[in-house]
Amino acid sequence: MLLKPNPENNCFGCGGANARGMQLTFEQDDAAKRIRGMFRLGMEYEGGNGFVHGGIIATLLDEVMAKVSRFQHDYAVTAELTVEYVKPVPVGDELIVEGWEVERNGRNRLRRGEIRDASGAVLARGKGRFVEVARRSEQSS
User: Fold this and answer.
1) What does the pLDDT average to over 45-73?
2) pLDDT of 3 strictly over 80
3) C-beta of residue 108 within 8 angstroms of C-beta of residue 130
4) Residue 98: which domain range?
5) Is the separation of the CB atoms in 124 and 98 below 8 Å?
6) From CA 61, how far away is CA 123, in angstroms rounded?
7) Distances from the Cα of 104 to the Cαs of 68, 69, 70, 100, 101, in angstroms?
8) pTM for this one?
9) Which of its termini does the chain have fewer beta carbons within 10 Å around, N or C?
10) Residue 80 belongs to domain with CATH number
11) Cβ–Cβ contacts within 10 Å for residue 34, how many?
12) Beta strands of 16-136 (E only): which ranges?
């Protein structure tokens, strides 16, 4: 299933309403319980010397891991995010971004993510702890 940017969502990473955002599109693999995206990031995301900015790499990993909530239909926000920058991520190259869940403990969701190049080499890894929360519309009820 294709997860296109929602035109009513202002999220920097995946929202369609944010003209300055990344407007990322992902795919939901129900059989593997993984979220994937394929991207080529342009010079506007450069950190220097032709490589993607580290904060943008963290954003990609955060977004792909957050989307894993779709499998359980819960709403979880990032509580902790750790990024291992394995190799520089070149601007303009095809990237494969993937996220999955490794553990659920109460409201905590432990997830992993990777950014790979077209050959499959890992460029960055992420570990995230996401906490299930009520949506803002549910909090006021």
Assistant:
1) 95
2) yes
3) yes
4) 2-139
5) no
6) 11
7) 12, 11, 14, 12, 8
8) 0.92
9) C
10) 3.10.129.10
11) 19
12) 26-29, 34-40, 46-48, 51-52, 76-85, 94-105, 108-117, 122-132
